[in-house]
Amino acid sequence: MNTLRDKVMEAALRNAVEHGGKAVAKAVLSKILGSDPALRQRVAEVKQVVEEVVEEVNSMEPEAQKRVLAEKFGAQEPLRHRDVGETRLPPPLPGAVEGKVVTRLPPEPSGYMHLGHALAGLINEHYARRYGGKLWLRFEDTNPRKARLEFYESFRKGYRWLGIEWDFEKNNSDDMEKYYMYAERMIRQGFLYPCFCSPEEMHRQRSQGIGCTHRSLVGEAGLDVWEKALNRMYGEGEVSFRLVGEVSSPNTALRDPVMFRIVDHPHPLKGREYIVWPTYDFAAAVQDALCGVTHVLRSSEFAFRDELQNMIRGILGLSNPVYVEFSRFEFRGATTSKREIRSLIEEKVVSGWDDPRLSTIEAVKRRGILPQAIREFTLTYAGVTQAKKTFDWSLLHSINRKHLDPVTRRLWFVASPVKLRLINHKRAQVEVPYHPSTNMGKRLIKTGDTLYISGLDAENIGVGEAFRLKLLANVKMVEKGADEVIGEVIDGPPIREGKIIQWVPEDNRRVKVIRYGSLFAEDGSVDRESLWVEEGLAEAAVESVAFEEVVQFERYGFVRRDSPHELRFVYCHD
């Protein structure tokens, strides 16, 4: 899928499927120009291809659109259009008892919250409330080297922003003494042993399915090493404590995994109080039992760990939860991997955890995505399924648009402005409502013989062509120059067949809009040119937009004010 026409065809098909079988050319053009900054230099060519392809797509039957999208472009689950109020609740929870269900939100505070956490969190909350149960917020913070206070707060803020309320909160690091008690019991009973092998040797043993020579160090011999480790007589990497598992198991997670290791690094909550820390699997296995979790709902990437965590609880005499796994949520052109995001930040590919090209909650908030849109998307489209899903952002945008449209003000803006001088135009003023159907007030826009229109409109209107300046006048283009164009006002009723052009008056404000495309190209490579700034002019009322408020720049798209001091906005979507 290398050609421009292929890209346009996929975008047009997706747009049509999401909008009841009819693609919108303007939306497709915006999508294509946003996905590849280089195409902005070929606007006329791209526009022609878009118009041709949209006409072709709109001539297809809706089922044919879905079939072509699936067969040619690999859409794994062609999306169907749903009305705003339509919902599709997740299926019943296996083994659920009314009033007894306990689920959990188990974030690791090693990075900022992202959409994957949000979707999983909403599913866990949904089931807890659906069955009159309880919900835990439990931070999996037993890796001191990764945990940071700002990341704990990121999750609290993110869940609250989504409207998720939890009944209990704790940190895995709060129960270190209990982990130690269980560890000593397991060493005495021959289920845990100290290992002095290097990571490389340990990897060799596990990959080949052979036992470690230290496996016999259980009982008193193992406890002696354990006490020395607790008393800081070993350094980081010198010893670890491994489960006596099943070294020949086809599930490699059972092949004597590390349960405790030395981490000589201060913890954000515990300081240097502890040096021997449990691994994720040990802490999670114990905590799910201590918290009385009845159902573990999580992405299927953890499925191979279920057997291991059940083994740990079986040794300790703790109860097992019911596991419900669903596919990991992915968005086209983005990543939910905290490790990958950290790398992008360190390499200065992105500006931070809130870079609008990312899928973190801070990033999608900058993009004007509403929490109710994420909730609707999760419960209606994502759901609980093991079928791999890669969602296009346009689906979330279409849901968000339905929520934004009734509550956001409209303002006038032109990108890459070109001066338009009018002949035969008398000074006038137009009264413009902030919203076409909701009473949000009005403003007066005064005009003289100089206005500004977008560079794209100026380019696409030919000399001699008649067009309509929105709510103002009919105009015929009489001259086009490098720096300005000249139009003559013509009498008659408003033109209805020709172009209706957005404009701003001479009393305007210079505005910057942060635009972005997909951070990752189709081949998985990072597109370092996927963010740019588009400059334009807006009417004076743009100064009334509050910091973080979302408005719609008419015939351009929804934008969110990104600075309390500058007229800088982040583009949301069309």
UniProtKB/TrEMBL annotation:
Gene3D superfamilies attached to this UniProt entry: 2.40.240.100, HUPs (3.40.50.620), Ribosomal Protein L25, Chain P (2.40.240.10)
tRNA synthetases class I (E and Q) anti-codon binding domain boundaries: 500-562
Annotated Gene Ontology cellular components are: cytosol; protein-containing complex
The protein's Enzyme Commission number: 6.1.1.17
Principal localization? cytoplasm
Identify the residues that the record assigns to the Glutamyl/glutaminyl-tRNA synthetase class Ib catalytic domain, covering every copy.
Answer: 100-405
Q: What does this protein do?
A: Catalyzes the attachment of glutamate to tRNA(Glu) in a two-step reaction: glutamate is first activated by ATP to form Glu-AMP and then transferred to the acceptor end of tRNA(Glu).
Record's family?
A: Belongs to the class-I aminoacyl-tRNA synthetase family. Glutamate--tRNA ligase type 2 subfamily.
Q: What is this protein called?
A: Glutamate--tRNA ligase
Which source organism does the UniProt entry give? Caldiarchaeum subterraneum
